[in-house]
Structures are given as C-alpha cells and as structure tokens.
Amino acid sequence: MTTDQQTATKSIWPRFAVVVLALVVGMGFLAVMMMEPATVRPSGELISGGTITLEAVSYGTKHELHANPVHRLLQWLPKDLKRRLKITEPEVMTSKDPGLGIWIGLRNLFKDHPNLDYRILDESGIEIEASKLTSHWGRGTKAERQQGIVLRSFPRRSKSFLLRVYERDEKWKSQRVAEFKISNPTPGTYAEWKPEPDLTRKKDGNLEVQLISVSLVPEGRGRDVSVSEGDKIRAVAKFRVFESGEPSMDWQPDGVVMSDATGNELKQSSWSKDLEKETGIVSLSWGPTLWLSEKVWKLKFEFTRKQTAKFSPGEIWKISNLAVPGSNSVTQVNLVTNLNGHEIELIGMSSEDGKYRDYDGQHNSDGFMIDVRATPPLLDKQIDVIAVVDETGREATGSRRAWSRGSGTYGFGLKFHNQAKSLDITIAVHQSRYIEFVVEPKLTKKAESK
Q1: Do 138 and 65 form a contact (C-beta atoms < 8 A)?
Q2: What is the pLDDT of residues 159-184, one digit of tens each?
Q3: In the predicted model, what is the mean pLDDT of residues 34-49?
Q4: CATH architecture, domain 313-430
Q5: Residue 246: its pLDDT value, please?
Q6: What is 201-309+434-443's CATH number?
Q7: Do 303 and 432 contact (CB within 8 A), yes or no?
Q8: Rg (Cα) of the chain, in Å, rounded?
Q9: Which of 26, 142, 303, 334 has the greatest number of CB atoms lying within 10 Å of its CB?
Q10: CA 36 to chain centre
Q11: DSSP class per residue in 208-274
C-alpha cells in the first residue's frame, strides 16, 4: 500500500466512525421517540436507608442491564470506538441453565450491601422463597448500585406473579420493603400431573420407603401452626422405612430434588432430619420449595445410612494414631486409599485457624476439623466419619460438618478430651438410594392473613 493510500485510509476512518456513530445515535433517538411514555419505576424504601427499584427482567442464560435504549444500541459500535468514546459495558449475569433474570436498583444507600431476601407470590396467595441460580452485585458506588438475581424456578403457568423483597435488620428480622409485578416470559400450556395414592410404598433394592405425608409449614413457628401472610415456608415429608421387609432405623432421608410439570426443577438448599422413636417415623424438613398453584410435585428423595448402621469391609477405612495438632496448627498426612470406586485422601486434622501447606481446608473456630477429599466427587454416595477414639479409648463426638459435594471436599468437626494425644478414625463411603414420589403437598391449615 502506497503512502498516499495509507493517508487516505487514515482520513476515511474518522469520517466512517462519525457516520456509524451518527447512525447509532439516530436509531437510539428514534427508538426513544417510539417508546411508550415513560412510567415511574416501581420502588420501595429500605429500612437501612435508600430506595429499591425494579430495573429490568429477561429470560435466558445471559442477562444484561443497560442504562437506557441508546446505551444498548451503542454496544454495536466497534470496541476501539467504544473505548475512545468511553462507553461503558453493560452489567452482565450468566447462568449455565436458562433462568429468569431480574435486576434491582439500589440508590441513596446508607449501607453498601443491604441484606435482601426475595420471595415469590402467585395466585395461591402463599409466598415461596425465591431460589437463585446465581446473584450478582453490579458496579457502582457505596451509595448507588445494582443487584441481579437469576431464578431457575418460577410459576410458569401464571401470566404474572409478584416478587416481594425483604430486608433483614440488625437483629436479622425480616421486613418487606418492596413488591414488584413480574410478567411471565415463558407462558404456555403444560401437562397436568396426577398424584399417587396416599401411603404409597416404593423400593430401591432391599430398601423400601412408605411416604406418609408432605406438608407445608411456616418456618420457625411449629409444624401445626397455620401459614400466614409473610411466613417463610418449608416442606416436611414423613416416612416409614423398611429393609429386607423389616422396619429399619438404619436409614434416613438426606436430600430432595423437586420438579413439576412446567419444567421447574429445584434442589433444597437447607434441610434437617428427625426421628420419632415411638413410631419409627422419620421426617425431612427443607426449603425452599415449589409453588402451591402447581398442585402436584415430583419429589426424588435421597436416603443414606446412619453412622450407627452396619458397613461392609469394602466401605470403611481405619486410620490409626493421627496426632492431635496444637492450637492454630495442623497435622497434615495426605494418606490415600480407594473405597467404593473413589480415591479418598485424608488431608489431616486442623485446630481452629490452622492452615495446610497446599490445601484450603475447612475451619472450626471452636475445635478440630478432619479434612477429606474424594476423587471423583461423591455425587451419588455419602462419606462419614463413623467412629473416633483417642489413645485411651475415649470416644470423640462430631460438632459440625462442612462440604462441597461437587468438588469432593469434606470437613468433619470433632470434640474430644483435652488430654488426647492421638486419634483412631474410621471413615465410611457408602452408596445412596433414590426413591421418587408424585405427591400433592398440603398446607397445615387454610392460609390466613395476620
């Protein structure tokens, strides 16, 4: 290319850029002129100070927040030109699975990150905790910023539903601060499921489970109390368990995946287990749940053996003379074995804030923690520390558990005699059982207003 051609090219580029910019701005102006008259965004007042508004709603795997329609059009400009014109990128959230993206604006804040909870209210009149695929705090200042959330599950039969926002105060008490009407981005016609008969029994191998009931109860107010407006809802399922035809106390429910006929699928984020010793009935309580307007749910329960159950030699690993670490220290051993088709590595034991050389272990601020890693991760199995004794035979007790099932990392909190020098530990890796029911959950009583 000659010098004259290069000069001509350089002179054309600025004019081309100006033309492109003029076209984009013109399109943006036309888009704004063609829009419906501006309306005031729905808003509310935060108890910590400031306002909360609904900014944008979208559906898919990528959710963008633009300042205005012109800002959206300007994103089509070449990257170099956007950089020269100092055009900012939009806020973006992404998720692996399609979901409902909701952007919330927070302005005139006194608190940088308010403690917000989101709940969904449909035509059933009952609020259900919104389960998030992901959440995102946008760019901004301490006084003004955005929060985005992506919901995997929502009332898909409804034309619209309400998103209620709650803020927690300094005493962690929730108070509603806003309510936004959300139009359903995926309306359609869906199948109608029918529930299975009451007291249905299902089998997985020699394990048989009878589902007695599934009820929805207010969190923290007892299982026999009416559900009222503003209550956070949990589900409670009750079972009888049999092994080889006989009642068994060795198995317990340890998780659930919920789904409905509209394509929603949801795994519990918190759960607890209970046993009625007099009747042998075991129960699982969990949240969040699906919606009551979707009357029939499919529930896939995971059942696991208790630590007191019997395990085969191929399921257990015994480690002897693990030295008790000193204060804020670790005993790192990196012992490895194979159990049930997985490589199980005992990283060691930590005390309080002790740190391993090359492993980010769990911490137990008031005691000791056993750290274990499983490869590949135990997606359909469980791992437990089923026995711990010190050098004199005194038994230790479990204090807490922490784990990331997807990454295969586990921490087991322990409490034992303060004179203990070493511990003998028994670890079990055992197969879970999965049993599925199609049910119509029931409220404890008819919902009523406060």
Answers
A1: yes
A2: 999 999 999 888 888 899 999 999 99
A3: 64
A4: Sandwich (2.60)
A5: 95
A6: 2.60.40
A7: yes
A8: 28
A9: 303
A10: 38
A11: EEEEEEEEEEETTS-TTS--BTTPPEEEEEEEEEEETTEE-SSEEEEEEEEE-TTS-EEE-SEEEEE
